[in-house]
Amino acid sequence: VKCLVVDLGSLVPNVEKAKGTRQTTSFCITSYVERLSFCSITGHSADTAVMNGGGAHDLSEEESKQDGAGDTDGGEDSNEQEVIVIQDTGFTVKIQAPGTEPFDLQVSPQEMVQEIHQVLMDREDTCHRTCFSLQLDGNVLDNFAELKSIEGLQEGSLLKVVEEPYTVREARIHVRHIRDLLKGLDPSDAYNGVDCNSLSFLSVFTDGDLGGVGKRKKKGSELEQIDCTPPEHILPGSKERPLLPLQPQNKEWKPMQCLKVLTMSGWNPPPGNRKMHGDLMYLYMVTVEERHISITASTRGFYLNQSTTYTFNPKPANPSFLSHSLVELLSQISPTFKKNFTVLQKKRVQRHPFERIATPFQVYSWTAPQVDHTMDCVRAEDAYTSRLGYEEHIPGQTRDWNEELQTTRELARKNLPERLLRERAIFKVHSDFAAAATRGSMAVIDGNVMAINPGEETRMQMFIWNNIFFSLGFDVRDHYRELGGDAAAHAAPTNDLNGVRAYGAVDVEGLYTLGTVVVDYRGYRVTAQSIIPGILEREQEQSVIYGSIDFGKTVVSHGKYLELLERTSRPLKVQRHNVLNEKDESMELCSSVECKGIIGNDGRHYILDLLRTFPPDLNFLPVEGEELSPESVRQGFPRQHRHRLACLRQELIEAFVEHRYLLFMKMAALQLMQQKANKESKLATLTENSSPGAAVPALPSTETPDASAESSETSTETLTDAAATEATTTEAAPKTDPLEGKAEDSIPGLAQAKELAESLAAEDGSGIDPKSREVVLNACKAVGSISNTSFDIRFNPDIFSPGVRFPEDSADDIQKQKQLLKDAGAFLVSCQIPSLVKDCLDHSALPMDGATLTEALHQRGINVRYLGNVLAFVDKTPAKAQLEHFYRIGISELITRCAKHIFKTYLQGVELSALSAAVSHFLNCFLSSFSDAVAHLPADELVSRRKNRKRRNRVPGGGDNTAWASLTPSELWKNIVSEAQSYYHFTLYCENADQVVEKYGLQKITLLREISIKVGIQILIKEYNFDSRHKPAFTEEDILNIFPVVKHVNPKASDAFHFFQSGQAKVQQGYLKEGCELINEALNLFNNVYGAMHVEICACLRLLARLNYIMGDHHEALSNQQKAVLMSERVLGIEHPNTIQEYMHLALYCFANGQLSTALKLLYRARYLMLMVCGEDHPEMALLDSNIGLVLHGVMEYDLSLRFLENALAINSKYHGPRSLKVALSHHLVARVYESKAEFRSALQQEKEGYTIYKNQVGEAHEKTKESSEYLKYLTQQAVALQRTMNEIYKNGSNASIMPLKVRGLGPIYFHMGQKDLENLKAEVQRRQQLQESGKSVEDLTVDSPLELEDKIPMDVNVD
């Protein structure tokens, strides 16, 4: 890396403004570091750089508008104030390649020559060249020079592409690149989960017609020829859940064969005398025409030689067809190659860049079709070298991961360009490291790596491979004996990873953590870590100069470590504390005792073993003689857990501290008010007020009010009702709050209290009168602050650690800490869980599957081990019916997690040759209705027929390694039920899969998806018959692969994130244009740090699209949302709940652009995915069905439309209650369809229902109610008119006066927006309405529109 980090400082990364140019351009930016790691191995990077031909390369860079960055948040953050230095505007150069016309290329002065190479290797007409130089007036340009540093290079200069002689390395790169081009459209890498390829199916549904939309299609003509009928399984009420449509066959992917075989020849390497003739290596090929040829790669290019498979004759054939590139050579020999290669490249270049660019981390697919296994020399070679990423192209071969990870952290970060560069480098190295660690972990478990302690038993072995250290998640040498043995050893790595993540996020200069990746594969847990320089040469005892290697029996401390850790203490809320060592001396620590400090041979201060960064969770840690708070005891805590490493999550600590801060402010405010009100009785009231408060708590942690805490004060009045929902925080005051009744009156004093607290913190309280100081002191004591003059809560992570002893003099402090921990545990149970459930009730949290449920729990600081409690809480909620979807997802998550625990140990006992049989047997026991699933013992492949007959009668489970085969469905389900009881303290009532489906309303396909994703199984995509009682659902042929499940740190793009947040804030305030600019800026910065593909870029694009849409730029909305969908499919997975949401939004924008049939296809796709992921009974389904109904209404498919809208009405009534405004809107939509069908009686009936809801909920005067009553009048008139028309028809057969409905304002019906935009939108809509004729049409819906879908604050909340 030292060589890599050469003048990184010189680069000001490209940040391009999306305003003038089409957005694709910003994806051309390959960062400097990435380019360096390519070190001119242009061969590989073509796909990474995705310069979409020359055209997309117009990086027209303009100065970032300073005003955008300047006035965002008035100095809240210093980096908002910096001028963003963005490079000078681009210029155009001409490129002349051999055999092609010169073409223009837009470049920017900041770019390196290397990037032009990338563009040429991706362009259709020059993609087959890899070994060339660029020359300006006969001078060769240096690949790593920036264009601005090249003399004489200016607007209009002509650059010549000059073919260079090959070396062995260049020849190999060329072969690799040609192979990549031939595989350009082949999805097998995505199915196999290699090289960061992943699937995307959007183009199947849009037929690629989103780009030039409005121009190419005439809007009108589209209406006639649409077939709108969805497949049967998508219709409401269908019970069928087919698996095949999940991965529709893409016509484009039909393989176009250019070559039958391309492989290295067995005659390699060339003998000495041929080397001296310039032979570099030999290739063997078979063309589609069945011609077998042997090719020499020489310094001058490629030519045919006279060798055959068995005779070596390296002389050139006649003719030899010497060509500088393989493509030119093959095009002369094989007409089919010539034809197909051209077509293939055309198709490749036409694909959206997002379909082919690599993702930062590998995404695996849990289903795949049977893919043909083809010969592939490059793949074969890669499998047996330890090649990772681009090592062999970097001088110095294997990568020193630790050095790379730490050096990137040390890069300068004073201004924006430096920070961007640093974050880009950190992100790149992290994603490379995660890929290497994953590959290494799999090699370790597959037995391809030799242990460093080969003499020990297998579970105790450790490994080093590619400069990464691997250890298994077992309790080695009874290290964790007191903490829970193997269970603790299994939990420790994830806790440690959370610690690494937390310290990494605080990012203190001078404090280093190890690169850490945790991989679960084939039932084993592997921890992969970078290696501290010098650690392998020394004993651990000598190296550790801070912390303890034996859980606190011996402890050492170190001044420099204390100083470094002190800087993390405030953000991580860790209290500095003393512990006793073995000699009873007091040692000061600022972390848990297990956290070890080691100075590496490189002089850096490393900390490792961060498994107790966060304080213990007392609800799962019974301690003798300690009584938990009543809230916890009521819920049946403390409970015995598998291990003693249960910690509170960082999110919980933050929420708890925030909650305490509010309490602190309220107490101070109350006291100030009382002082003011009556000075005489002040003392009496104060004592009265702080005594109940004293029991309130004590812990170690927070910064003075941060912005979110301040914003939440406005909601103090609502605090008293069990859970005030504030998007960011959960400040539900516990019911025991002494201030409960008085919360409202405290508001006047809040501002004073805040001022007081801030001035105290600022001036050490010198200028403040003692009375006020006393107010703060009392409030501090009441909330358990560790300081008496300001609010500061921190936790001591060593409380209740076995083996840790504290000095006598800190007994008081320890008592306070214990209380604070109990309070935090109680806060989780009494506030966070109820607040989660409340969020689900008012639909601000909408989990759809296990992953999104887990995320919802984690955001509120609730560990998944509380899942049983959460479900029990839902069970007792009066509104349980409205939480049915949540309960069902929870049960499914609980069952699949229990199955995962069992599967893990089950797999450890299976030998490799029986893996697919064992996995299919487990799935049969788990899901199949076939009650006596018998395992197929897989010895049949290798044993001759005769013996096999005897073997068949063998008892399953007879042999040693076949214990897995004796598992039966009833035994597995017994184990699942007992696991649910012991781990989650939840009672499941079921003895097999069918009962689960029956009792809890689950779907087997959903369970299959959840378990496959959790344990990394890939199954064959076909229709499984789970319910057959005669044969098992799975056979061993159905199990295609086992993938690793990987956990790693996700480095963040901090500046981009700030811009994104400021942009969101602007949008919330209604400044759409400014918001849009900031979010565009954020998008550029995200692209700079993450490259083109990332979850956060996805969020950015989605928000941009929404803004474009609201501001009326439907075309741009479509383009951005298309990228968001593609990215979501690629980065999160094709059926991830976020992807489903993205599909719904894209459908809306297609609709707005008049592409009705595409909109319908997308909505049907979203509905299919949703049915598979969570079933039909989910609140989101109502929204989806309303949208489908509206589009169908728009294309006059009234009967179909009615089916979907009535389903939406039923679901809305169930989840929002029959009196909700959503239900009123649903009634209205159904009435509209009846009106269109001219069934006025039914229409009247529906609209009356809606009218009644409006009248009761918002009153007669409200515009909604008025509109509804107008519409009722109109329907009545229509009914009368219809009667007349009918009479007329009887007379003369004309139906002239039945007016068809105009499909006009349907667009924005269902859509998430902030209230401000809503107002703007309403004004806009009303303006448009006045402009158009006043005739009643679907317009009135537009005004309803935004009601429907709201991210945070549904409008009908206040009235519902």
Automatic annotation (TrEMBL):
Cited PROSITE patterns: CLU
Region (Disordered): 52-78, 686-744, 1329-1360
InterPro entries noted in UniProt: CLU-central, CLU_dom, CLU_N, CLU_prot, GSKIP_dom_sf, TPR-like_helical_dom_sf
GO molecular function (one): mRNA binding
GO CC terms of this entry: cytoplasm
Biased composition (Basic and acidic residues): 58-68
The Clu domain, residue ranges: 379-621
Pfam families (alphabetical): CLU (PF13236), CLU_N (PF15044), eIF3_p135 (PF12807), TPR_12 (PF13424)
Biological process annotations from GO: intracellular distribution of mitochondria; mitochondrion organization
Regions of compositional bias (Low complexity) in chain numbering: 701-736
Entry superkingdom: Eukaryota
Annotated localization: Cytoplasm; Cytoplasmic granule
Sorted UniProt keywords: Cytoplasm, Repeat, RNA-binding, TPR repeat
Recorded family membership: Belongs to the CLU family.
Functional note: mRNA-binding protein involved in proper cytoplasmic distribution of mitochondria. Specifically binds mRNAs of nuclear-encoded mitochondrial proteins in the cytoplasm and regulates transport or translation of these transcripts close to mitochondria, playing a role in mitochondrial biogenesis.
Record's protein name: Clustered mitochondria protein homolog
Species the sequence originates in: Hucho hucho (huchen)
